[in-house]
Amino acid sequence: xxxxxxxxxxxxxxxxxxxxxxxxxxxxxxxxxxxxxxxxxxxxxxxxxxxxxxxxxxxxxxxxxxxxxxxxxxxxxxxxxxxxxxxxxxxxxxxxxxxxxxxxxxxxxxxxxxxxxxxxxxxxxxxxxxxxxxxxxxxxxxxxxxxxxxxxxxxxxxxxxxxxxxxxxxxxxxxxxxxxxxxxxxxxxxxxxxxxxxxxxxxxxxxxxxxxxxxxxxxxxxxxxxxxxxxxxxxxxxxxxxxxxxxxxxxxxxxxxxxxxxxxxxxxxxxxxxxxxxxxxxxxxxxxxxxxxxxxxxxxxxxxxxxxxxxxxxxxxxxxxxxxxxxxxxxxxxxxxxxxxxxxxxxxxxxxxxxxxxxxxxxxxxxxxxxxxxxxxxxxxxxxxxxxxxxxxxxxxxxxxxxxxxxxxxxxxxxxxxxxxxxxxxxxxxxxxxxxxxxxxxxxxxxxxxxxxxxxxxxxxxxxxxxxxxxxxxxxxxxxxxxxxxxxxxxxxxxxxxxxxxxxxxxxxxxxxxxxxxxxxxxxxxxxxxxxxxxxxxxxxxxxxxxxxxxxxxxxxxxxxxxxxxxxxxxxxxxxxxxxxxxxxxxxxxxxxxxxxxxxxxxxxxxxxxxxxxxxxxxxxxxxxxxxxxxxxxxxxxxxxxxxxxxxxxxxxxxxxxxxxxxxxxxxxxxxxxxxxxxxxxxxxxxxxxxxxxxxxxxxxxxxxxxxxxxxxxxxxxxxxxxxxxxxxxxxxxxxxxxxxxxxxxxxxx
Length: 750
Fold this sequence. Notes:
14 helices; eight-stranded parallel β-barrel
């Protein structure tokens, strides 16, 4: 399995895109309001919104720079709009009309002709013909003015250096006051017949289509609510992802809200899902089905804290709510609270209904249900509902001594809540229900009894149709040993065979950590090799941000046979370190030298090891098996094949992975082919066996060394090499005459 992190197109396929294409508009807005945009025709879009405040304002946005698509699929950046003439039909209800004060304005942000940052405010009504809620709008960006009343307040727009433009949408009750509307206000805007003409009307757009591969993709509404479903699915499809999409409905954008005591809280008043979420997911489901996808709808036990009812939240013994580390945080719903669990069941049925209406098979995931653990180890089982169900249990710190009976009871309560959710979903004929467990949390080595509460035996097969396992902390760190132990423990405890599991690999939280894609890709491949029916990459927004590209069938690009060269290498053999140095001599004879390689590359001639006809036969057979220089192999260097107490690095309390290295003064050599069984590790001089040797000489400690702790290693190693030439010339006469054959090898960089 191979992957690539693309940063830009470099000769890959391109197509053309009409500027202002409906699929590429986005929305943005402040909480608590919600909005979404979907495409309704090749030249039309629709915005659905719900407003709660008198100063709520949504923006329908076109950006000059594509910041959301995969680098291979983005449209070109062109900030000059002066060659564009835009025309569309406007229809709306529930928002201030085109002719109103504070009605729809096209805000253009960029720079003036002198390069100074500027914004212009173009009142759409000044360029409209028709009635305020059904009109044709036509704008020539080479000749357009901002200002409310024209021509008296005209502010000529310079559209030659634009960053973005957006249409502002406000509710019919808009006053700009920081106050609540009398009731939530739903609204919609339809823009149809979108046409852009002129020499600047067409943009190039990436049109790469990767072949279908073996990975599936996960997605999250909280990260793509502002995009059109058509745009999201185009990226997934053209990056080669097929089969099922695991779609997390999120914890912060799907719900309706009601005003209570100055705050807004989730509500079932008037329906289950807010109108923006319902419109987006309905379009997403229909398009997914048309493209041949199945959708697994994922619902978690989390809600955005600011909108979660206080008595629904899990709490520690001191009353502190269980909150995640996200900004803003989400709260964990108590499995014991009947109101919270009823709400989740109703939400689940709403998404089941969306799937059925689109003609999709019903597949539903109960996502990461657990009892929250405070950073200091306290278990959050002390909300009023949990205390009543668990008979007011004493505080449990899972990093110390615990009452296992209390943890077992908490686990039974958690399992019962998920089974009730499962049973509601199974009202839908043929529904498949999956459970997702996040192993690094539920199988925390520092809290060995936590599995009683957070991996309860009530989940044991066949309680759910599929067990989905996720371990992205371990996967991103390349901690293969922890992942293997966690999966084995989950299988032993719950009894799901690999054929009844899915695996989730990922994700990369921060763009600066994109190097984590390599161990994540390796973890995904291990999942596939285990035989699970589906392995998912988590998640599409990070794939697009970092330019991750996966493709199958390319392992031969880095062809290496993990075998040792079979002939004894005599002391007469030539061993030649090679460097590349650029030397520039000035007219005065002074030299400037630049080392073009970070370290030396080794060259060998192993001909002196050929001493018999049997050696010739073995050499020729080995050469043929490697297809000459095509495939690499191991070679034991007779002069440099071991390292002793080599410093690998210094602990920081977080990093557990270290690369084996051999040091030569200030020069460091990566050791990628250590001899298995020879590696000995020490932390601050104390030997440890609590580590795993992974691929390419990476060792992963079971626990990250403390800050300042020095990690050292002793080991034997081989050099990765290949044959240097396409031909091999040896004969009987060579060694009979006492002459050495020439069999050149060259080191392979890994």
